[in-house]
Amino acid sequence: MSNVEDRPVEQDVCSADAAVAGEPELEPLRPRDVPLGGPRAMRVRRVLPNRDRRMVGAWCFADSYGPDDITGRAGMQVPPHPHIGLQTVTWLLQGEVLHRDGLGSRALVRPGDLSLMTAGPGIAHSEQSPPGHSPVLHGAQLWAALPGAARTTAPAYEFHTGLPRLDLPGADVAVFVGELDGAASPAGVHSPLVGAALRVSADVRLPLDPGFEYAVLVLSAELTVEGREVPTGDMLYLGRGRTELALSAGRPAHALLLGGEPFAEDLVMWWNFVGRTHDDIVEARTDWERDRSGARADPRFAPVTGYDGPALPAPALPNARLKARGRYHRH
Questions:
Q1: Cα 73 off chain centre by
Q2: Which positions ≥6 away from 37 have C-beta within 8 Å?
Q3: How far apart, in whole angstroms, are the C-alpha atoms of residue 3 and residue 5?
Q4: Do 209 and 182 touch, CB atoms closer than 8 A?
Q5: Are 206 and 247 in contact (CB under 8 A)?
Q6: Residues in Cβ contact with 297 at an 8 Å cutoff, skipping those fewer than 6 apart
Q7: What is the spatial distance between Cα 165 and Cα 173, in angstroms, rounded to a whole number?
Q8: 226 CB contacts (<8 Å, ≥6 apart)?
Q9: Is 152 helix (H, G, I), strand (E, B) or coil?
Q10: Is the peptide bond before 49 cis (omega within 30 degrees of 0)?
Q11: Which part of the chain is the Pirin N-terminal domain (predicted)?
Q12: How far is CA 27 from CA 51, 239, 329, in A?
């Protein structure tokens, strides 16, 4: 998914120098409402990056959307757009999303499928509700930052079905990234990371790795996390040092558990790019503008074939250089 804002908020640097708490904590993170693809398009709830916390492990971006009735409407329509320095994850509860990218990949993503794209130094992709789509669209889009050693890894696309699951009293868990309680996803990631989809219908306790920091993103119905009610679209940051997580729901609720080792590198995030310096971002933007116009025979961002329409232009860069601020903000 693209950040389609024409004036994207400068996300600056997620600084590794800022201390990361080593003890459990509870920090509510509220999303902001963002239009996806124009004033008549669907809207998403963007909870990462957040004013107070920009990352959870390597997870640096989290949108949730729906359930939206898209009967008779186009639904999700995100034109070809670029990424660098990250992996994208698409996870659906309802509906379908058609993924195309510059590698020639084409996949129709349905609930329970994992769509994972690795950008490396550069890739472009599009995301659409297909013709004849289901009436309701409901899901999430996530980004995980690539560590320095993986920034030049070749762009790649993975599509997985039949993911490993945990069938627990009171919860069904699908592990789409990393490992949880012995269930390990086949997805290729580049830092210690976990992502799991939760369907909670009663009281349940999930085992956690105390070396990871975690957060829970609620996708539907109100879920109680560690005794605190978390509404749809909100995230509750849990800190580090936990060996288990207490969840409860009076009726079936869906959520994502995200976690990982605190990311140990400085990141500059702007628009759809994750780099290390202001110059990384400028170079990527310049290359994208050249490549989408077809000005180079050997493009960094190969064109997305099969999409009927123009690629997304890059917004203007801010007048000032992107500056370093903390990994998270403390009041």
A1: 24
A2: 4, 76, 77, 78, 79
A3: 6
A4: no
A5: yes
A6: none
A7: 5
A8: 26, 236, 238, 245, 246
A9: coil
A10: yes
A11: 42-143
A12: 12, 8, 12
Radius of gyration of the chain (CA): 19
Selecting from 3.10.20.600, 2.160.10.10, 2.60.120.10, 1.10.10.60, what CATH number does the domain 22-260 have? Answer: 2.60.120.10
Token reading at 326:
């903390």
Distance CA 200, CA 197 (A): 10
Q: SS3 sequence, 281-315? A: HHHHHHHHHHHHCCCCCCCCCCCCCCCCCCCCCCC
Amino acid at 155: P
Give residue 258's Cα distance to chain centre.
10
The first and second tokens of residue 307, run together, are 């999409």
Positive or negative, the CA dihedral 314, 105, 103, 65 is positive
Q: How far apart are CA 152 and CA 251, in angstroms?
A: 45
- pLDDT by position in tens, the chain (length 331): 556 555 565 554 555 544 445 667 899 999 999 987 655 567 899 999 998 799 999 999 999 999 999 999 999 999 999 999 999 999 999 999 999 999 999 999 999 999 999 999 999 999 999 999 999 999 999 999 999 999 999 999 999 999 999 999 999 999 999 999 999 999 999 999 999 999 999 999 999 999 999 999 999 988 999 999 999 999 999 999 999 999 999 899 999 999 999 998 989 999 999 999 999 999 999 999 999 999 888 999 999 999 999 999 999 999 999 865 445 655 4
Percentages helix, strand, coil for the chain (3-state, rounded to 5) are 5, 45, 50
Residue 185 is given by DSSP the state -
pTM: 0.92
Closest CA relative to residue 220, chosen from 195, 197, 253, 249: 253
A 10 A CB-CB count for 24 gives 17
The token pair at 213 is: 């920091």
